[in-house]
Amino acid sequence: MSDRLTSLDASFLYLEESTTAMHVGSVMVFQPPREGFDYDQLVGIIERRIGAIPRFRQKVRDVPGRIANPVWVDDEGFDMSYHVRRAGLPRPGSDEQLQDFVARVQPRKLDRTRPLWEVYLVEGLHDGRFAIVTKTHYSLIDGVNALDIAHVIVDAVKGEDQGIDPVPWEPSRAPSSAELFTEAVVDAVRRPTQVVDLVRGGLNDVLNVGVRAAESAGTLLSAVARTAARPAPDSPLNAEIGTARRWVMVSTDLDDYRMVRKRLARGAYAEDVTINDVVLATIAGGLRTWLLGRGEAVSGPTVVRAMVPVSIYGDDPAGMYANQVMACVVNLPVGEPGASMRLHQIAFAMRQQMEGGQAVGASSLANLAGFAPPTLHALGARLGSAMSRRLYNVMITNVPGPQSPLYAGDAKMLSTFPVMPLAKGQALSIGITSYDGGVYYGLNADREAMPDVDDLGSSILESIEELTSGRES
Fold it and tell me: What's a BP term from Gene Ontology annotated to this protein (predicted)?
């Protein structure tokens, strides 16, 4: 039996348009060891480690007639040199030049005829540094069969697997189109509840799927409505987007956020003010300064609505329980002039959602795109894209990382920045990762709608300084 994509994974393929590539990226900056680090070493690291994760040598094949979800098949012509590429920055090799490089390569869609990942070794950064830029399609990352390719490259132990030969790999024969079709029909018959959706192609099926689409959308809207009673406010963060991007990285110190939390977390709910709340308050302050600098009308009630995925972990101290991701909708009080007041308002809003069960479960979000058989996934994708602009202004993801060094071979990773894709109608996405004492922001923006995204990066730095100093604007 073929390894078939889940409805959720398949939906990411159908969500993809020329302006909305559905892959996640990362930019990792390294200090090479004294003896250096080169392209062959990077290829060797990946070759040794992807043997344990077959997905990185598999590609997606559509089923004829799209009567079932696509399947994963081995790429018989797998070419490592296609997926791992080499690039160099001209002198002086500045961070700004690295940002421009990322803005050029990240929006390009991954080749559907090959495994859905790419890695770039970017040489020539000043101070002898180099960067590794990755791209991994959402449909490939399921947390079980495959992870982001960036997690394959780095390790907690310096030079952990050097000298170990890659595991030999022989691809399995790819099934023919006739075999894929027959297998899809047999699979549908074995699951009677899917026969109507996957085999019958009549008008009644389309109508039934339309009803389910409306029900899924209604479930999502009703859940969000508890925290977002009105549509998202008008904002320059929502605009028609093109294919070109600007990308900015911002580096901050984790100790600053800890200090702010300790100093400003006062009162009965002090223990409920989290580092994530401080991060959101920092972004709120940055957005306030950026909006004022643009000449936008900002008054007391002005807010920017953010969709904030939050991981909820089980009580098992050994971490044996799988984590659950909830999506909170929170109004960032950009109209509030006081930095500490912004923090307390955000902390209260987040606590209220989590305690009141008002966070939107990841399964509810998935149902919106994954409700239909493959031929109608595009309908769900368009519906989801149309809704997103009305529900929130910006997506913010904050993922805690390890607080000890990671290595690619003998090269120490100095910093790591996420590159989150833009959804339709969203001019900005913000990804944050904490790592080894730092908090690193990746600001991905539409090139035309937000030519001043670097000003937002500077405003975020001013905002955390305002919080740490206790200065109120």
Answer: response to nitric oxide
Six-digit token string for 453 = 């995204």
CATH code, 460: 3.30.559.30
Does the model's pTM come out above 0.70?
yes
- What's residue 1's pLDDT? 58
Residue environment code for 224-237, b if the CB has 16+ CB neighbours within 10 A, otherwise e: beebbeeebeebbb
What number of other Cβ atoms are within 10 A of residue 335's Cβ? 17
User: Residue 52 — very low, low, confident or very high, per pLDDT cuts 50/70/90?
Assistant: confident
Note the pLDDT of residue 203. 34
Q: How many domains does the chain have?
A: 1
Residue 409 structure tokens: 């071979």
Q: Is residue 368 part of a domain?
A: yes
Q: Which two tokens mark 136? A: 């991994």
Residue 240 lies in a domain: no
Residues 91-109 pLDDT 10s: 999 999 999 999 999 999 9
In a domain, 53, yes or no: no
| Residue 181 forms part of a structural domain | no
| Predicted confidence band of residue 401 (pLDDT cuts 50, 70, 90) | confident
Query: CB–CB of 241/19 below 8 Å?
Result: yes
Two tokens, residue 104: 């050029």
According to DSSP, the β-strands at 84-88 and 117-123 are parallel
Which range marks the domain in which residue 270 is found?
Answer: 245-401+427-469
**Cα-to-chain-centroid distance, residue 4:** 23
Mean pLDDT of the chain: 80
